[in-house]
Design goal:
heterodimer, A: mainly alpha, 3-stranded antiparallel sheet, B: 630 residues, Penicillin-binding protein 2a (Domain 2), Beta-lactamase, 5-stranded antiparallel sheet, 24 helices, 38% helix, elongated
């Protein structure tokens, strides 16, 4: 008897394991991961094994989150945010300096990068915040939300880690946007930001200005900061329509592309697979985002909706900022290509996002039930 | 408080999702347009840039042309050796790296000094040798430890070598590392491309003058390189073309005998083939070892060479200027004949002095030479004759005639930086002095000009050149060292055409008088002791140039410090009837010309005309002092 139950349990195990997983999200993410492995095999074959381990860890985390009900996540919102904020303050005070930036906190047994946590913690908290305001949110609520957002963003920006700051800011902004901040205010903010730009420009130091000029016109500094972006645009442009073929990109194989396994992996992909490859990648991201937005549209609670919408758009931010900077239309900030770039931290964060989406999708009927 | 309407709220949320979705598609469309721009419209441009990145043209430096003497003896050549090179821009702590290298490869303090000097002079991104001429064992040792020394590499390079060491160094010159000033010269010739990869440039002597002939054509190798500049594989290759060889008019053996004839004395000797202007020997001693300069000279050797009181870096043959002393007299006599101020047989009476406006100019021979004609004036070197003659001719006639003989102007020899010397004239004085009272020429100043003293100052090559003109009956050839240049590509010999540059209007009978008198010098006059027993007939003239003004006191060689002793001079040509060689010898502080300079000329002429080799350097002939009454 016991034996039979065990057998049944074992037989049903795969079924039970994959039950909470959304097949379409799983399919798209799986294809992207396959592409990642392919590009990694060209850009940095020696890192393939460790990236496979990263993928395995990320999938386990995703699976775990996929069955955590959104209500449970809501309870976690405040403590996670507070812990993240405290860690960020700790980093600012005692963090390790690496490559000129103070981002890491040495916890003795491991080094943690608390800013990464905030990519999820901030939308989580803001979604919780708007859920708690049962009534139509008033302007003052948006003010509070903005404050809750700006606090961690400012701490991250001064590490300095512009890439993560942009991502966290965007993630938080998406929640506020979805919560219904009026168009008047949104447009007003955009206009005043544009109007303030020249004023800010006059306040900058010369070196800051020249840095900004380099961001937009890399040829000004072809051997310094501009080198990366010049080489990556050459890689993309020389790839042509069909690409040079897997492991046949000269810019990649002869190491002209910097950071070619992390932030600039798109240049490698684009050189070797051309415009066709780029189109495939864009379509996969669009499908991933579309599926996420659908999940948000059908989510049960305000909290779930806001969280799902924001998490989905995080993928968009990653993809757009990364491809934009590598192809030379956005300034260079350290943002990886989602699900493709090497690195465990970003991968785990992104799969937490996917796990949350799956959980929201899986629990969409709970209220009705 | 406004309560929310769940349905309305959901609608609004969904519309915002729609906006977000639209924004996402808009942004992705932007990206896609960017990709189309880069990958279709601009594809060719980026394709080219990727190829430019990938393919690097690596210059292959050509072998420098050889320098050979007229008989094909190699005077400058190349050899290949391994050097240990450091690229300073790739190394954060140079001293530490060098210390590390010193632990496995022998690096002497002088290597470090030389490296530091190169570093100061270097252009950026250049790799500089810390050690040259590595042994095979050292090469193997370094390769085993190479991973520890990024920015340090072993390179096979061609080195210039002067097999004779210090031999003929002032003529050959040397090469050294390319400096900014050399770069300007390269740019002026629009040869930057051909000089890519070239690290050496001719600095002095023939190496400098014929730099662009010796250099050759740089070859190129198309290699695929990675971002670090390391060659991955070779795609194509254009071979370099070695520089052209120079074959000199110089006879190396004659040059050697002439150099050795000086012993350890300082001085210069220039021997010219009168019929062509080809230089047979160009000696300036002391000389220096040009090999020291090839890999960059170390500071200690540099200091020694520059600070030595003997000034070994000065090319005395071209840059030393000396009063010609009595070697000036034959030219004075020729001038007098040409402008009709004297006839050969015209006699003057020499009481042993010449009184000009109350000032007495003394003749060396007490009581004078008696009745003196032109022949006797040259053979016995009678000063009074020339004091009078100078006064009769006047300074402007003298300078005009001497100018035609090339005195006081550059001879145009194929070595750069030749000195002009001083051919005194009224105009020269006006230009040379600043104070008005000094700018005027005094008639009294003309008197000592006549015996080759006063403002007169000429280089040894000018004296040799003037002697060659006399020996060649007034037909002037530009003195030159290179006989022909061998074009490497075609193998053709490009002759440096010995074309006469001008012919002086001299009467053959006048030339005959002077040459005859100079033959008399070596037969029965001041050169007779040095040329006793010669198996050929030669013409000569001794000279002594005052370094130290003796205010009326008798000059005694032993009584004066060596640096203040007179310079000894001798000019000569031989054989007398059809001269094949004309020369000028100068021995600094050698004393009388007959004593120090004439014996050197004898050894050179003996070898050139008879193939006779001297057993020892020319010994100063102390006994000649008594007879040399200059």
């Amino acid at each position: 008897m016991n034996r039979g139950i065990n057998l049944a349990m074992i037989r049903d195990l795969p079924q039970r394991l994959i039950a909470p997983l959304d097949p379409s999200l799983m399919l798209i993410a799986g294809l992207l991961l396959l592409m990642s492995i392919g590009v990694m095999g060209s850009a940095s074959p020696e890192r393939l094994n460790s990236q496979l381990i990263n993928v395995a860890v990320a999938l386990v985390v995703m699976r775990a989150l996929a069955q955590v009900p959104p209500q449970r996540l809501m309870h976690l919102a405040v403590p996670v945010y507070l812990i993240g904020l405290l860690l960020l303050i700790a980093v600012a005070l005692f963090g390790d300096v690496s490559k000129g930036a103070r981002r890491w906190l040495n916890l003795g047994f491991m080094r943690a990068q608390p800013s990464e946590l905030m990519k999820i913690a901030v939308p989580l908290l803001l979604a919780w915040f708007f859920q708690k305001r049962e009534a139509m949110p008033r302007l003052s609520d948006y003010g509070v939300a903005a404050l809750l957002l700006v606090l961690p963003v400012a701490l991250i920006a001064r590490q300095p880690d512009l890439g993560t700051a942009v991502l966290v800011l965007a993630a938080g902004f998406y929640v506020i946007f979805f919560a219904g901040l009026s168009w008047k205010i949104l447009i007003g903010m955009a206009v005043s930001a544009l109007a303030a730009a020249p004023l800010v420009w006059t306040l900058l130091h010369d070196y800051q200005r020249s840095r900004i000029i380099t961001l937009f016109d890399p040829e000004q500094d072809p051997l310094g900061k501009g080198f990366h972006i010049i080489q990556s645009t050459i890689a993309i442009g020389s790839g042509g329509i069909l690409g040079k073929g897997w492991r046949a990109g000269t810019q990649a194989q002869l190491e002209f592309i910097p950071e070619r396994h992390t932030d600039f992996i798109f240049a490698v992909f684009s050189e070797e697979f051309g415009l066709i490859g780029n189109l495939v990648l864009l379509v996969l991201y669009a499908l991933l985002i579309g599926r996420g937005l659908m999940i948000a549209a059908n989510a049960a609670t305000l909290f779930s909706r806001l969280l799902a919408g924001a998490v989905t758009l995080i993928f968009f931010t990653y993809a757009f900022v990364n491809m934009g900077m590598v192809s030379g239309i956005l300034p260079v900030v350290g943002v990886p290509l989602p699900l493709i770039s090497y690195g465990g931290t970003a991968l785990v964060t992104l799969f937490i996002g996917i796990g949350i989406l799956m959980s929201i999708h899986g629990h969409r009927m709970l209220v009705q039930k | 408080m406004e309560f929310k309407n769940p349905q309305e709220e959901l609608e609004r949320f969904r519309s915002r999702l729609g906006v977000a979705g639209g924004f996402v598609l808009f942004c992705f469309a932007l990206l896609f347009m960017r990709f189309v721009w880069l990958q279709i419209i601009q594809h060719d441009y980026y394709q080219t840039r990727a190829e430019d990145n990938r393919i690097s043209l690596v210059p292959i430096v050509p072998n420098r042309g050889l320098i050979l003497d007229r008989n094909g003896l190699v005077l400058a050549r190349n050899y290949s050796a391994y050097t240990l090179e450091i690229t300073p821009s790739k190394i954060p702590d140079l001293e530490k790296s060098i210390d590390g290298l010193a632990a496995i490869i022998d690096i002497q303090p002088k290597d470090r000094k030389r490296f530091r000097k190169l570093l100061e002079e270097s252009r950026n991104f250049e790799s500089l040798p810390i050690r040259t001429r590595l042994t095979d064992e050292e090469v193997a040792k370094f390769i085993a430890h190479r991973y520890r020394f990024p920015g340090v590499d072993i390179k096979a390079r061609l080195f210039r070598q002067y097999p004779g060491g210090a031999f003929a160094s002032h003529m050959l010159g040397y090469i050294g590392r390319v400096t900014d000033r050399d770069l300007e010269k390269i740019e002026a010739k629009d040869l930057e491309a051909n000089y890519r990869g070239t690290e050496h440039f001719g600095k002095t002597g023939l190496e400098q003058h014929y730099e662009f002939d010796l250099h050759g054509n740089t070859g190129f190798e198309q290699v695929e390189v990675d971002a670090g500049g390391r060659a991955v594989r070779t795609l194509a290759r254009t071979a370099p073309l070695a520089g052209n060889n120079l074959t000199l008019t110089v006879d190396a053996e004659l040059q050697r005998i002439a150099e050795q004839a000086f012993g350890d004395r300082k001085g210069a000797l220039v021997a010219i083939e009168p019929a062509t202007g080809g230089i047979l020997a160009l000696v300036a001693v002391p000389n220096y070892d040009p090999n020291l300069f090839v890999d960059g000279i170390d500071t200690q050797n540099w200091k020694e060479l520059n600070e030595s009181p003997d000034k070994p870096m000065v090319n005395r043959a071209l840059n030393g200027t000396y009063p010609p002393g009595s070697t000036f007299k034959p030219f004075m006599a020729l001038g007098a004949l040409t402008i009709g101020k004297r006839r050969p047989e015209q006699l003057i009476s020499d009481p042993g002095f010449y009184n000009f406006g109350g000032h007495v100019f003394r003749d060396d021979k007490k009581g004078g030479h008696g009745m003196v004609d032109m022949y006797k004036s040259i053979v016995q070197s009678c000063d009074t004759y020339y004091y009078m003659l100078a006064n009769d001719m006047g300074i402007d006639n003298i300078s005009a005639f001497m100018g035609q003989l090339g005195l006081g102007s550059r001879t145009g020899i194929d070595i750069d930086g030749e000195s002009e010397g001083v051919l005194p004239s009224q105009e020269w004085k006006r230009k040379h002095f600043r104070k008005p009272e000094q700018q005027k020429w005094f008639a009294g100043e003309t008197i000592s000009i006549g015996i080759g003293q006063g403002y007169n100052a000429y280089t040894p090559i000018q004296l040799a050149h003037a002697t060659a003109i006399l020996a060649n009956n007034g037909v002037v050839f530009r003195p030159h060292l290179v006989k022909f240049i061998t074009d490497t590509r075609s193998g053709k010999q490009i002759l440096i055409e010995p074309k006469p540059t001008r012919t002086l209007t001299l009467k053959p009978e006048h030339i005959e008088v002077i040459r005859n008198a100079m033959v008399g010098v070596n037969k029965e006059g001041t050169g007779a002791r040095a040329f006793a027993g010669a198996e050929y007939v030669s013409g000569g003239k001794t000279g002594t140039a005052q370094v130290y003004s003796l205010k009326g006191a008798e000059y005694k060689a032993g009584g004066v410090k060596k640096e203040l002793r007179d310079h000894a001079l001798f000019i000569a040509f031989a054989p007398a009837d059809n001269p094949r060689i004309a020369l000028a010898v100068l021995v600094e502080n050698g004393g009388f010309g007959a004593q120090a300079a004439a014996p050197i000329a004898r050894q050179v002429l003996d070898y050139y005309l008879l193939g006779k080799r001297p057993k020892a350097p020319a010994q100063p002939d102390e006994a000649a002092v008594e007879e040399d009454d200059e």
